[in-house]
Amino acid sequence: MSRIPLVVGNWKLNKTIRETVDFCRSLKEELFSGPEGPALGARKVEVAVAPPFTALSSAAQALEGSFIGVSSQDVFWAESGAYTGEISPKMLADAGCRFAIVGHSERRQFFHETDASVNKKAAALTAQGLIPIVCVGETLKERQEGQAFSVVERQIVEGLKSLAVRSPGELVIAYEPVWAIGTGQTATSEQAQEVQAFIRRLLEKVFSPPIAGGMRILYGGSVKPENIAELMARRDVDGALVGGASLEVKSFARIVQGCLPKT
Ligand code: PGA
Q: Hey, CA dihedral for 59, 61, 66, 68, is it positive or negative?
């Protein structure tokens, strides 16, 4: 089953509103005037940026009509109420988001994110018509102890429990081995493929074979223009969640180019 590659730039705690707007304008120019322009117009590759909350609506305005989407980096599951500091799926939709990253390892590590909270967030997003990008991945210690598959299995099964997904496009999974994030140590394409094929088999059980077959599974962790082609050559790598290399327009555009379908 053919899947449209997706490239998402996760900016983390970076960029002001001004910097976001400048970036979005240059990205549009770079992508549409570059070799990926026609493919982007024909929607052969999907692209999104994930600025901080403060810059989401400015990014959406700057990218309007460009086919480049906007994602948040997190969300809270309630629609409204006494939850100081939180942002709801409805507010994200209002700001112009199409996607929301949930369960990023930095949120799991520093902000007490659990599989149960990931599950509630993903459900609230799909109910609002937004697309969750659910991140999973093992730490170095877990990999060394031979637990990579069992950790990812728990994160997928618990994180996606009872999620109402009717078509493959309603959810995206990102496999991000924690030891590869921001370290410059990318997983080998074999390691990415092995875990991502395993994730697809889990998705068959959680949802159904047709939904699993059409769902995008991204790889994330030190993705760079130099390694994207090798990763994308693998059967179950359907795009990338890019941190550091997404902060600069030219390197992000080169990664998009590396995700274009070969034919
Ligand atoms: P990195 O981050 O590309 O800087 O390793 C990826 C991520 O955290 O999503």
A: positive
Q: Give yes or no for residue 137 CB within 6 A of ligand 1.
A: no
pLDDT along the chain (263 residues), means of 10: 92 98 96 83 91 98 95 97 98 98 97 98 98 97 96 98 96 97 91 98 97 98 96 97 98 94 65
Element (DSSP H or E) covering residue 154: helix 148-159
Which residue is associated with the tokens 């990014």? 59
Q: Are 68 and 31 in contact (CB under 8 A)?
A: yes
Going from the Cα of 183 to the center of ligand 1, the distance in angstroms, rounded, reads: 9
CA of 241 to the centre of ligand 1 (A): 7
What distance in angstroms lies between residue 222's CA and the mean position of ligand 1's atoms? Answer: 6
pLDDT in tens, 211-224: 999 999 999 999 99
CA distances from residue 112 to 73, 103, 117, 151 in whole angstroms, order as listed: 15, 10, 9, 17
CB of residue 10 inside a 6 A radius of ligand 1: yes
CA distance 93 to 33: 29
pLDDT of 261 reads: 79
The yes-or-no answer on residue 176 being catalytic is yes
Q: Which atom of ligand 1 is nearest to the CA of 180?
A: 5
| This model's pTM is above 0.85 | yes
Crossing angle of the two packed helices 148-159 and 189-206, in degrees rounded to 10: 40
- Ligand 1 centre and the CA of 1: distance in Å? 27
**Measured from the CB, is residue 9 less than 6 Å from ligand 1?**
no
Exposure string (b/e) for 24-53, b if CB count within 10 Å is 16 or more? beebbebbeebebeebbeeeebbbbbbbbe
Which ligand 1 atom sits nearest the alpha carbon of residue 181? 5
